[in-house]
Design brief:
The complex is a heterodimer of chains A (276) and B (347). By secondary structure, chain A is an all-alpha fold. Chain A is 72% helix and 1% strand. Chain A has one domain. In chain A, strand 1 and strand 2 form a beta hairpin. The radius of gyration of chain B is 26 Å and the shape is globular. The chains are: A mainly alpha (276), B alpha/beta (347). At the A-B interface, helix 1 and helix 5 of A face strand 1, helix 3, strand 5 and helix 4 of B. The structure holds adenosine-5'-diphosphate and magnesium ion (MG). The site of magnesium ion (MG) has 4 residues of chain B, from helix 2.
Chain lengths: 276, 347
């Protein structure tokens, strides 16, 4: 007896899986809304967090009017830009942080692997972190403010580029943390790799040129956080030379994304589940 | 008939890290972890035909769950191969998982925080079950499992028995060709176990699904499976019909005789000296006349009629009883004595 292989066009399958992801999201929202008080408390906390971040920013930049030839407003723009992909990434990445605990140690990955849906999509979409919306809001606000101050002429092409670069940058974040997460397939001891790496993101919010050559190379090719803010943002605030580099961001996303998927897949083959 | 499931020389090693004792040991562990391998499944081969319901039996830690996890594509084997209907589970996961249903007695496959019905709706979407079919299936499940009463409860609030009923329904919603059940009756009370078994019988008849069932509750097996595979320490010890196992050599039936007058065991034994019979519980007292005597014999060597004839030639009989060995004893004997050659019929 033969079992049929599932054959369908990539497009069809993408549509099916997207539908499932949206259904997961709807379930998540429903659950959150069921605890209405929690939801309101969260909302309040989020607004407060945004206020604090804005105030910090104001203090920070009132002391540093310009950095190595970068105007205050340009730096602000890069900072604002950096929050957009970070927000997107934070929205869906919460299960990456608890992956070792929840999915490997507790064996929840078993359930995920038994469903005809991409396992990574399932893991990412089984929970959302709504505070990612903070960064999206804050980032958009800061960027619009800085763009106004800089009197940037923003045309339809720029918007299009933004819509390509932001998701690309989010993919770069996700790739780095996916690789870090996949390490837990080999090392059951949860090595606290993610928090220090998360801290490096902070360096990436400033113009890359303020760092020494070594740091620059490191941030471009090893921990590619140069590509999550500075590089793509130069499309808007850089000189002609830098602007050309900005468009390499999607390519970097594809490269690191592919690498991360290879590591992830190797990890899945290595997965040992749990005894009882 | 071509087999549906073919398992060839399947082996799985786990990586283990041993922990040293104490704080100092913990620090040494960080630098130099003590690694070793554990072979949980060792060179296992078997085939399963479409429509069969096969029992996969073994003590705790024998390797049952590990085998199931490779058959369902969760684990990639260390070596060897699994093919189910031409698909390789751990390589063609997205195609394969559409055709199978899985229930782990130890852990639910449903979403812990969602109401049962929400879980079913998500599954409907994932497996693309048409609405009409979904309703038919839910009616069928409700008739047999009575799941309607807790359809709107979150899974985490269900009792173990209720949860198991939901898991069974969820595993069959998309009409899989193969159903894998890993200890489906574990922790259930007698009534709940009976329900699960009844449902499995019905599901197999009505849906025609092929079933592999692991258990260490041998009542499950007696009631559900004709064929069993016994494993111990990751190796197949027996693969054949339950019936054949009972008829096999070295496998003793018990014939108990109640005589009309007390007779010394030695005397009775003398009457049957020419027969391959063992007498139970007579050591040390073989001179004292008693009424009850029990003979152990193997079907392949003699039979009850022959023994009776020999006894009746010298003594008067009042009553008698013939008992099949309990399946527990059969399995225990296999564990003790090792491999049993598979009956020719299955070759
Ligand atoms: N994820 C795992 N990691 C390491 N060892 C495991 C794991 N799962 C099972 N084992 C070990 O492998 C052996 C077989 O386990 P298992 O397949 O669960 O047996 P069973 O289901 O028959 O009880 C046991 O010794 C068990 O401790
Ligand atoms: Mg088990």
């Amino acid at each position: 007896m033969q079992l049929a292989e599932y054959r369908t066009s990539r497009w069809q399958d993408l549509r099916r899986q997207t539908g499932i992801v949206l259904a997961y999201f709807a379930q998540f929202l429903k659950m959150r809304l069921a605890y209405r008080v929690d939801f309101l408390v969260d909302l309040g906390a989020n607004l407060f967090a945004i206020g604090v971040q804005l105030a910090t920013l104001g203090v920070l930049f009132s002391k540093v009017p310009a950095l190595k030839g970068w105007s205050f407003e340009s730096v602000l723009f890069i900072y604002g830009f950096s929050l957009l992909p970070l927000g997107l990434f934070n929205l869906i990445s919460i299960n990456l942080y608890r992956f070792a605990e929840r999915y490997i140690a507790e064996g929840n990955l078993d359930r995920v692997l038994l469903r005809p849906v991409n396992p990574l999509a399932q893991v990412l979409c089984e929970s959302f972190n709504m505070s990612g919306l903070n960064e999206l809001l804050l980032g958009t606000g800061v960027m619009i403010y800085a763009a106004n101050q800089l009197e940037l002429a923003v045309g339809p092409l720029d918007i299009l580029v933004l819509l390509v670069l932001v998701p690309s940058a989010a993919v770069i974040y996700a790739s780095v943390f996916l690789m870090v997460t996949a390490v837990s397939f080999w090392h059951e001891d949860r090595m606290g790799l993610a928090p220090p790496i998360y801290n490096v993101i902070r360096f990436a919010r400033y113009p890359l040129t303020i760092y020494g050559k070594g740091v620059q190379i490191f941030l471009m090719f090893v921990l590619p956080f140069a590509w999550v803010a500075y590089m793509p943002a130069t499309w808007f605030v850089g000189d002609a030379e830098q602007t050309r580099w900005a468009l390499l961001t999607p390519l970097v996303a594809v490269l690191f994304g592919g690498l991360a998927m290879m590591v992830w897949r190797a990890g899945l083959r290595r997965y040992e589940s749990t005894g009882n | 008939m071509a087999p549906l499931i073919t398992v060839q020389r399947l082996t799985k090693d786990y990586h283990l890290t041993d922990r040293r004792e104490g704080v100092l040991g913990g620090m040494v562990d960080l630098v130099r972890p003590q690694k070793r391998m554990l072979r949980a499944v060792d060179d296992v081969s078997f085939t399963i035909d479409p429509g069969e319901m096969v029992g996969y039996i073994g003590a705790n830690g024998a390797g049952k769950s590990t085998t199931i996890k490779m058959l369902t594509g969760i684990l990639t084997p260390t070596s060897g191969e699994v093919r189910v209907g031409g698909l390789v589970p751990y390589r063609q996961r997205q195609s394969y998982t559409r055709h199978i249903g899985v229930v782990f007695g130890q852990r639910t496959q449903l979403w812990w925080d969602l109401a049962v019905v929400e879980s079913f709706r998500l599954l409907q979407r994932i497996y693309e079950v048409p609405e009409a079919r979904y309703r038919e299936q839910m009616t069928f499940f409700n008739e047999l499992l009575g799941i309607d009463e807790f359809l709107h409860q979150p899974v985490r609030k269900l009792s173990l028995g209720q949860r198991m009923r939901c898991d069974l329904a969820a595993a069959l919603l998309h009409e899989p060709r193969v159903l894998f059940l890993d200890e489906p009756t574990i922790g259930l009370d007698v009534v709940a176990k009976e329900n699960v078994r009844g449902f499995l019988r019905q599901a197999r008849e009505q849906l025609g699904v092929t079933v592999i069932l692991t258990t260490h509750d041998l009542t499950d097996i007696e009631q559900l499976c004709r064929r069993i595979i016994i494993i111990d320490h990751g190796k197949v010890m027996y693969n054949g019909l339950l019936e054949d196992l009972r008829r096999g050599p070295g496998h003793k039936l018990r014939l108990c005789l109640d005589l009309a007058e007390p007779v010394a065991p030695a005397e009775l034994q003398a009457a049957c000296a020419h027969l391959p019979v063992e007498w139970a519980e007579t050591e040390g007292a073989d001179r004292t006349p008693v009424l009850r005597h029990c003979a152990l014999f193997s079907r392949s060597e003699t039979n009850a009629a022959t023994i009776l004839a020999a006894v009746l030639a010298a003594h008067r009989l009042r009553d008698m009883a013939l008992t099949e060995p309990a399946i527990e004893d059969v399995v225990r004997r296999i564990y003790r004595e090792g491999l049993v050659p598979a009956p020719e019929a299955l070759g």
